[in-house]
Specification:
Blueprint lengths: L9 E5 L3 H11 L4 E5 L2 H7 L6 E5 L7 H9 L9 E5 L4 H9 L4 E4 L4 H50 L6 H16 L3 H10 L12 H4 L7 H8 L1 H8 L6 H12 L20 H15 L11 H10 L7 H8 L2 H10 L3
Parallel strand pairs: 1-2, 1-3, 3-4, 4-5
Helix pairs in contact: 6-7, 6-12, 6-14, 6-15, 7-11, 10-11, 11-12, 12-13
Length: 341
């Protein structure tokens, strides 16, 4: 059985001198795949092939090497490609300017073949190590993210155990919230982060006595004050982690009972002073509460719940978000059926 040889590294040479191109191509082509560009415009066309390294002349017509290098370093698609400047200019200030533009090395003309090969091999090896490290870091980050999401899932389940009548409420709220955010035009990654943060909206109920959570009748004034405290308790429980998901979760836990007209709690925030994530989850949370049975009430139909949400747009809820929520009635009903208790 034969093993496939690893692909040869690709080197892009940018130089307006045919003589220099021929010389460098002769040095490098036995060992690497070589691309050639005679000016900056051609280089920008060749770079889409994602070379592993660029050898770049400085003095060229129309666009000099400094400008080309700066343009490449400003582009997220090409900024990580290492650039070695090649130039007849040997002044220290020329080298410094090259490094300031983003180059990693500087080779003076005339070329000495073995020295060019040494520089190119050294920089390709460094780039290979860098890419390997980045891959390892991404793997570690993905493992950390998975661990964090498992932790969030377990925290949400702990809330459900504490307030067991809600069952799959936290999961339904997450799905409703993500659908509203997507319709509203939020960034896809933000919508995904919201999905994982939303289940923690009632995490503070862990600190509320069972007698209050499960009371079948109306809460008295003292009990209501204690119940309201679950928002601040939740935010306190989620402190100490500044990742995107947990930052959203803290804001949601603290503010999902605020009202658009400023009559909510705990801060009495009004309108868009309420964080967007909390305004979204407020709709999702109330909708699911309306269609779910509780110790103190029976469930109502989805149509009745939609009507209540619509009638309180502008007072309880952000009217723009309500509009996006109501655009997806069928999806909301489907979610409620898919994740039934």
């Amino acid at each position: 059985m034969s093993l496939l040889a690893p692909p040869r590294a690709t080197v892009l040479i940018v130089d307006d001198s045919a003589e220099n191109l021929q010389l460098l191509n002769g040095i490098l082509s036995p060992h690497f795949r070589v691309l050639i560009a005679r000016n900056g415009e051609e280089a920008l066309k060749r770079v889409v092939h994602q070379p592993d390294l660029i050898l770049m002349d400085i003095v060229m017509p129309d666009m000099d090497g400094y400008t080309l290098c700066q343009q490449l370093k400003a582009d997220a698609s090409y900024c990580d490609i290492p650039v070695i400047f090649i130039s007849v200019n040997g002044r220290p200030e020329d080298e410094v300017r090259g490094f300031e533009c983003g180059a990693i090395d500087y080779i003076r003309k005339p070329f000495y073949g073995p020295a060019v090969m040494h520089r190119v091999r050294a920089q390709l090896a460094a780039q290979h190590r860098k890419l390997g490290l980045l891959q390892a870091l991404r793997h570690e980050a993905s493992e950390l993210q998975r661990s964090r999401l498992v932790m969030i899932e377990k925290l949400a389940k702990a809330t459900a155990f504490k307030d067991e009548e809600t069952g799959l409420h936290v999961l339904r709220v997450a799905h409703y919230a993500r659908r509203i955010a997507e319709s509203y035009g939020c960034d896809p990654q933000w919508c995904e982060d919201l999905f994982y943060a939303a289940p923690l909206h009632d995490i503070g109920k862990i600190g509320i006595p069972d007698a209050i959570l499960g009371k079948p009748g109306k809460l008295d004034d003292a009990e209501w004050v204690i119940m309201q405290s679950h928002t601040e308790l939740g935010a306190q429980l989620l402190e100490g982690d500044d990742t995107n998901v947990m930052t959203l979760a803290r804001a949601i836990a603290l503010h999902h009972h605020e009202r658009f007209d400023g009559q909510g709690y705990p801060k009495g925030l009004r309108g868009t002073d309420i964080p967007l994530e909390a305004r979204i989850v407020a709709i999702a949370d109330v909708f699911d509460a309306l269609i779910s049975a509780r110790p103190y009430k029976s469930a109502m139909s989805c149509d009745q719940a939609f009507a209540i949400i619509e009638s309180t747009a502008g007072s309880h809820f952000d009217p723009q978000l309500v509009d996006h929520f109501l655009r997806h009635r069928d999806a909301m009903v489907s979610i409620s059926h898919t994740y039934q208790d």
